[in-house]
Amino acid sequence: MKQLKVGILGFGTVGTGVVRIFQNNSELISTRLGGELVLHRIADRRPDREREVHVAPELLTTSCEEVVSHPEIDLVIELIGGYEPARSLVLEALKNGKHVVTANKALLALHGDELYNAARDAGVELLFEAAVGGGIPVISPIKESLCANRFSEVAGIMNGTCNYILTRMTQEGADYAEVLKDAQDKGYAEADPTFDVGGIDAAHKLAILIRLCFGTRIDFDDIYVEGISEVTALDIEFARQFGYTIKLLAIGKEDNGCVEARVHPTMLPNNEPLAKVDGVFNAVALEGDFLGPALLHGQGAGMDATASAVMGDVMSVARDVFSGSIRRVAPMSYPPETVVDLPVKKMTDLRCPFYLRFTTDDKPNVLAQIAHILGEHHISIASMNQPERHAENAVPIVILTHEASEDSVVEALMEIDKLDVVREKSRFIRIEGSLA
Ligand code: NDP
Ligand code: HSE
Question: How far is Cα 234 from Cα 229, in angstroms, rounded to an integer?
Fold first, then answer.
């Protein structure tokens, strides 16, 4: 029987899920492959730690180097995360002729080109379905089933931790810090959770999708990134009163040779499909010129769902190896020599409706002063709400605008914040209509 020997780097949340699939579904996997996957080594710096699975001690090692250089290992699964030593280990594995499967979006977003080139030079596969959308197949449909399409948009909810936090804040009025801790306990969050709540993890995924969909290199620093830490219970409640839900969206668009790349909290009308994606679920909306709109939906993080995507890649490599057809598809869909460098649209050029929240003194003429400054910046008011006081003699004033330019909103708010009657820095949240 044909065999592919596998080594794993990192026996944490996802590594444990992968081992569980090896243990529970090996017969099914062999039947589907017409060959066998053999788990040969697992490297982790704390191999003896308590885990949900039991493995034979001789499979375990503390040395990642042993795995990437082991003469019998054909494929390395990188699940330690982060930039270093993950980058050096993956490069070493590729150089040693091993196929690599990784879930490490941070690594791919910043060092992707170096790794894709190393895989090409070594004539091996580099697959990373789990890097975007956890268990949802996103990468492989873009590379394969949908590859006849010209994409104009790829957008959605791409961080399970943030969606879990925002959902529980919205539905239960839960406390931000408590829900974040819960998301960490459930294995959804990154080793450094500021990557999740700061929007960086979603931006890593967006960088990968923009490259796959539009065939352009994107400098990670060109992606606008704003996380959820400033979204308050008050904003969530006002959004609800206006018929909206707040989600952290990652938005990539290509229009006339220019790319939009942004991650930020967004207000969506409640009837939008993305507004109904709750908990740890993610959804990626695509717009293809022949496909039209499509929405890929499923669990965006967690041990089992992510391991499912990792093992799908491992089986895909095994099929290619067993059938003698490796490197049939370029890791990033476009052959490297065809990749271009499209300019990225500045955030100041963005136009959309806005939610604005001001905290002001509760006295006459305040609203008139704010409305006057908005009018001077050509910002037209669509609706407003001034509820009861929420602090000593201070009231929130909430305004939804018609479509306006981001630079005029930023300038208007700076001017408004200088008024004597304004108590706190004013807040704005961008509003999106339908995505894909
Ligand atoms: P974990 O932190 O749970 O697992 C990583 C494991 O690798 C830990 O056991 C860690 O040990 C070990 N490790 C880290 N550095 C080294 C090293 N230098 N040498 C040996 N062992 C090391 O992370 P996850 O399993 O959650 O994530 C793994 C990867 O999968 C990351 O790239 C993440 O972004 C990605 N991912 C995770 C998802 C999820 O839902 N969790 C979903 C999609 C992708 P120690 O605990 O001591 O640090
Ligand atoms: N920390 C990530 C998330 C894991 O919460 O979405 C999945 O990539």
Answer: 13
Q: Whose CA is closest to 342, among 415, 399, 259?
A: 259
- Taking the domains of the chain in order of start, what are their residue ranges? 2-135+303-338, 140-298, 348-431
Give the whole-angstrom CA distance, residue 386 versus residue 291: 44
How many Å apart are CA 373 and CA 356, to the nearest integer? 13
Measured from the CB, is residue 133 less than 6 Å from ligand 1? no
CATH of domain 2-135+303-338: 3.40.50.720
Burial 150-165, CB ≥16 within 10 A → b, else e: ebbbbbbbbbbbbbbb
Q: Is 205 a catalytic residue?
A: yes
Mean pLDDT along residues 128-139: 98
Q: Calculate the CA 109 to chain-centre distance.
A: 11
* Topology of the domain comprising 348-431: Alpha-Beta Plaits (3.30.70)
Distance 270 CA to ligand 1 centre (A): 35
Q: pTM higher than 0.85, yes or no?
A: yes
Tell me the pLDDT tens digit for each residue of 205-225.
Answer: 999 999 999 999 999 999 999
- Which superfamily does 140-298 belong to? Dihydrodipicolinate Reductase; domain 2 (3.30.360.10)
